[in-house]
Amino acid sequence: MGAITALGGVLGGLMTRQALAAGSMGQLEPAVSPYGPLFAAKDQETGLELLKLPRGFTYRSYSWQGDLMTDGSRVRGVHDGMGVVMAGGKGGQDAFLIRNHELRGIAAELLPAKGIYDGNRQSGGYVGGGCDVLRVRNGKLVEHYQTLGGTSTNCAGGVTPWSSWITCEETTYDGTSAGGKKHGYAFECSVNPNETSGQPIVGMGRFAHEAVAVDPATGYVYETEDARNISGFYRYKPVNTSGRYGSLAQGGQLQAAKVTGVAGAKLLALGGANAVDHVGQTLDIEWIDLDEPDAAPSGGRSGPYLEALSKGCLTMSRGEGIWHHGDSIAVVDTSFGRDSNGSDGRGLGAVWVYTPSISNPERGTMTLLYAAAARVAGNNPDNLTISPRGGIVTCDDGAEVEDAYGAGQRLMGYNAEGAAYILAKSNVVIENSDIARMGRTGQFPADDYRGSEFCGACFDPAGDTLFVNVQSPGITFAIRGPWAKGNL
Asked: In degrees, to the nearest 5, what angle opens at C-alpha 454 toward C-alphas 449 and 459?
């Protein structure tokens, strides 16, 4: 019953549905939203109609790509994963967010943060990724500044119970031959730039990290890997479980998940050679120790994945967002399913729920909560969050969807039966005249950005505000509204 309690009845509703209609092969149409249909809504900051939302919802944009930050630097682009790490200020009215920038390759400039990992010039430039901090009060930006630089491809990550952010490099780039450093690590970031060391948590493994979720009951950190059809599902057991800033870097044991009784189980699609054949199915999981978390990649596969595979551990398609709530953890596989050619691990995505065993922490279960069987019902979910009320939200990241509300990427909510509905839709189309009127000339080009993915969805602790990014041109939104009308 743990997962039913953890996700506010979502999994319980799913199980009821499966008892009535066993063998579900996935969702074909979006469910009806409890918040109603979508309409173009004006941004309270710019007056532009950048989002489509249900009636009664409002939003404000800020910290656009190229904006001047409080510390004198400029906001980098490619906004990605993000989390509300703490609330503070008078009456706890301030929300502190840490936001990733998924900048890959070599950039002309190093991100000017105090915490720097790889600051060496290499291949004619610098590793340009990193993280910044946003302080928001009542939905309005108060200040924003850099906290980490010299990292690459900072995709997603996760908040910790001790009010920090773990940012993840979605790459195994090795710059040592060019004077740089190895990449593919997780880093801890603080809202105080003086505390952000820029040192990797090597014990958490070197692979194409996507996101992490900390189980506050045990201190274990669950990790996803984003490498097409060669991805493991991992967790890190720190030796220091005090739950303090820097404790994860003191070492620990990396483990990989294995389906009990099934060596090398594949979780790429329903049926066929896979260990799962219907939505609602539950698999028993055990955890296997890995000896070489920093092993180099080989043949396109990460070192930890190769060791996990040799020990019979499971394979996912592309692990993405992961979030802890209650006593369970929701996990996204963005490419679960099949494409039109019938190829496994090239589908429209799924959401799993992992629930640790209370009696034996080395065991648990994974239940397939949701699988998309048509693009209109789910378009490769990526980042994921869970509201304080236990409702799931995912960010679509597939090809731009044409649905009843036109073209554009979407935020999807999930109802009490585990079915996805359309919560919001991008309407970011920007003309040169809009850029000039906003005072942002030269920061980004005019374009139709409706196909750019949503990223970094997260709620404030009170559940009043949903923060989310659009990756290009790089915008952060704060969305407010009558959340109590539905399950979010």
From this structure: 140
The confidence band for 471, taking pLDDT boundaries of 50, 70 and 90, is very high
Rounded to whole angstroms, what are the CA distances from 149 to 80, 169, 389, 482? 15, 12, 34, 38
Q: Using the predicted structure, report yes or no on whether residue 454 has a pLDDT greater than 80.
A: yes
HSE-up of 384 (CA within 13 Å, CB side)?
32
Share of the chain above pLDDT 70, in %: 95
DSSP, collapsed to helix, strand or coil, labels residue 482 as coil
Q: In this structure, what token pair is assigned to residue 95? A: 């929300």
Of 427, 447, 453, 425, give the one whose Cα is nearest residue 435. 447
Verify cis geometry, omega within 30 degrees of 0, for the bond prior to 473: yes
Give me the count of residues in the chain: 488
* pLDDT one-digit tens code per residue, 244-284: 999 999 999 999 999 999 999 999 999 999 999 999 999 99
Question: In the 8-state DSSP scheme, what is residue 125?
Answer: B
Alpha carbon 175 to its chain centroid, in Å, reads 26
Which residues does 331 contact at the CB level (< 8 Å), separation at least 6? Answer: 222, 224, 233, 319, 321, 322, 351, 352, 353, 354, 366, 384
For 38, the token pair is 């979508």
Residue 11 belongs to what H/E stretch? helix 10-20
Exposure of 424 in the CB half-sphere (CA atoms within 13 A): 32
Which two tokens mark 224? 């996803």
**Sign of CA pseudo-dihedral 323, 458, 416, 424:** negative
Give the Cβ contact number of residue 124 at 10 Å. 8
Give the pLDDT score at 20: 32
- Give the contacts of 282 (CB within 8 A, at least 6 positions apart): 365, 366, 367
Residue carrying structure tokens 């979720």: 213
Q: What phi and psi, each to the nearest 5 degrees, are found at residue 91? A: 70, 15
Instruction: Using a pLDDT cut of 90, give the percent of the chain over it.
Output: 89
Contact (Cβ atoms closer than 8 angstroms) between residue 365 and residue 354: yes
Residue 16 has pLDDT above 80, yes or no: no
Joined tokens for residue 236: 């890190």
pLDDT at 405 over 50: yes
Closest by CA to 427, choosing from 77, 79, 40, is: 40
Assign 369 a pLDDT band (cuts: 50, 70, 90): very high
Task: Return the residue matching tokens 């990797």.
Answer: 200
- Write down the residue that tokens 């994921």 correspond to: 384
Measured distance CA(249)–CA(204) in Å, rounded: 9
Looking at the DSSP assignment, which residues form a beta bridge with residue 422? 412
